[in-house]
Amino acid sequence: MSWAGPGIFTQWDLLPGRVPGGVYRIGEHPYQVPEPPQPAPVNPEEQQLDSEALPDYRALHLIMEKSLTKSSALTPRIKEQRITQEERFATLFRVCRQLKKSHNKSTPLPPVNLRLDVLTRLYVSDRYSLVYCEVPKAGCTNWKRVLLAMAGNANLSRVLSQNDVHVIKNYTRLSQFDAAGQRSRLDGYTVMMFVREPMERLVSAYRDKFVHKNEHYQLYGRTIMKHYRKNSTNAPLAKGDYVTFPELVRFILDPKRPLWQDIHWLPAHHLCQPCLLRYDFLGKVETVRHDAAALLARVRAPGSLAYTQPPSGRSSATVTDQYLAQLSPETRQKIYEFYFEDYMLFGYPLPSEANLKPI
User: Fold this and answer.
1) CA distances from 129 to 132, 140, 194, 295, 333 (A)
2) Are 25 and 266 in contact (CB under 8 A)?
3) Residue 1: C-alpha distances to residues 35, 116, 223, 240, 294 (Å)
4) How far apart are CA 92 and CA 85, in angstroms?
5) Who has greater pLDDT, 225 or 195?
6) Residue with more model confidence, 65 or 336
7) Residue 12: which pLDDT band, with cuts at 50, 70 and 90?
8) What sign does the dihedral 164-307-206-212 (CA atoms) show?
9) How would DSSP label each residue in 176-210?
């Protein structure tokens, strides 16, 4: 199993906490591109936007950006955001230490200990001194649109379909630089990631990839149905259609087979290694409106560049509960355990029925 879709070479990595030779994930092979151009100066006229004519998230971005340029006391909203970030990182560092990960000053500087697939998942904007770690189903499509706009491709970022945003090669990845270039960017840029409540992210991945009949995931569908469905008929098996949510969960939890796993449902901490890599900003989908505005203000992005918030409720708590109800109590406990570190590291409360001891 060394194929991950058209034009993508794969790398296999053992998922921590699983049995050797058990569950693996897929990472993209890096490709070489020329060094990015020098940052272009920001046009001051881009700052002259009428905040009253903008959607709320843009107006908020302008307010926060303006406040950051003043020497006077920070606004209550900026203070609140700073406190939020401090609390999130305090939780992250504490849990990393308790999980006996290596998030301390004695750890060798990244990227020494970062896996290759993580380096390929770190997207770079040299113009705005930003490094973004992609976590699928946590707003990554819209963050990629922001990165395209940051690179001067604003029109392209608006017209590309959701699928094409992930297919095009118009991105700069940290893996494209040598060790010195990687280290200088990790040390000098704002390094950020966004996360999401683990069960909502899992349900969102299932709905997007299997309910909406994503062609690439028919490969997974055929494998899942073959191994986890009794008396499957030839027609759906050939197409990989109609994978149920319980079947996907069985696939994810199976410790006996060397089945490959996918970044859309792998735990976020495995994708971005936050206990090894120093992050400067930790955002959440649940508070993306304020978090995105604060992040864009921090990197001095112009007010014309904004994160477009997706429609709400696509995989809300109510919808998520409906899918979880399809699982047996025992299976629900196992899937909570699978995402336990994400719950703890990113400060999400465990489900009330989870029989797990918080860290």
Assistant:
1) 10, 18, 17, 12, 41
2) yes
3) 33, 18, 12, 17, 42
4) 10
5) 195
6) 336
7) very low
8) negative
9) GS-HHHHHHHHHHSEEEEEE--HHHHHHHHHIIII
